[in-house]
Amino acid sequence: MENKQIKYSSITKEKDLDVLIEEIGDARVVMLGEASHGTSEYYTWRTAISRRLIQEKGFNFVAVEGDWPECYAVNRFVKGYVNSGSKIADVLQVYRRWPTWMWANWEVAALVEWLRDFNNLRQVHEKAGFYGLDVYSLWESLEQILRFLEQNDGQAAEAARNAINCFEPFNRDPQTYAQATAFVPTDCENEVIEMLQRVQRHPPFTGDAEHDFNTKQNALVAVNAEKYYRAMIRGGASSWNVRDRHMMETLDRLLELHGPESKAIVWEHNTHIGDASATDMADDGMVNIGQLAREKYGIHQVKLVGFGTYQGSVIAGKSWGAPMQKMDVPPAMPGSWEAMLHELSTDDKIILSKDLQDIPELKKRIGHRAIGVVYDPKYERYGNYVPTVIPARYDAFIYFDETEAVHPLHMKPRGTKEPELYPWNY
């Protein structure tokens, strides 16, 4: 291919984002991806983009690929709630589940600091929020619901206790629970659904709409987490779809909470925000939040921005639950999207998909690198490239020729036995 056909804008400073901000236009949802969960530049530039969207276009919140309870604690901090903490590093200690480095890092601390400063002099309804979209926090959400309901609704609290008691024999271990439901015709689905229904039927618990939303969201997380862990033991695409549909449902609920004119920024891996229908994920019946958002809100209301690199370093683990380590990211495979951009120039750059429409070679799938929390550079070529029609998957792409690892806060993760249940680690 004649690489000179690819138009791009170099990116070295925040002002260079003008071309992307213009492309975003009046979109309601902007999703910012990453090709790994451990690369500094992805976090730093997503922060720069998010700042501009919040300041210049009135975006209301950042929603990330993190668990609801932990991210809601950060949300309370950035909005200045009473007893929400005083030091950023202390607040980020809530991220105790492996991989802790995803959100407990200095790059996220910079975003949190900026959000807190931005919100400091603003009225409650003007403050920018920070929320988690993910579905893993079954036990944490159940415990938060119970603590709240014990003070506000005895009957609903009893339903929450019943749900917790049902899960008690599985020792907070999703793998044990999932395996048990595979071989014994019993599960805790009815208990969590009953709890959710009681919470949803209840009139507002307090005068704080966000606080009530938090309770209902934790109940929804418990229902979908139970469904997710049950689906994982069966294998296939079903658990992936449960997770991404939950993330889409949460995004939709957040937009509704913030009103009809609200706008959302989403931070997730490229495998979630890049439209799955433009990849081989579609061959396996998988969908993702980027695709679902386009379908629900319309392609002009949703802007999907992918990120990638040619080489550098990354934080990851050799297996699920393994100690985090800094690893080399080798030069991208020949013929891949990243190698193509490297051959074009070594500039860091922004590429708009509308400028790729007339390039025949990009109308078919090409390899596009994806690094998860579990990674081994030696075996990258065997599982870290997603066949992708680039201009159909994203509205824009930000490329860095060489990147460095994110800077973790080095917290010890809470023990977990979850690895065998995770066929994907994005």
TrEMBL record:
This is Erythromycin esterase family protein. CDD domains: Ere-like. It comes from the Bacteria. InterPro entries: Emycin_Estase, Hydrolase/PRTase-associated, UCP036794_erythomycin. It comes from Pontibacter ruber. Gene3D superfamilies: Biosynthetic Protein domain, EreA-like (biosynthetic domain), EreA-like, domain 2.
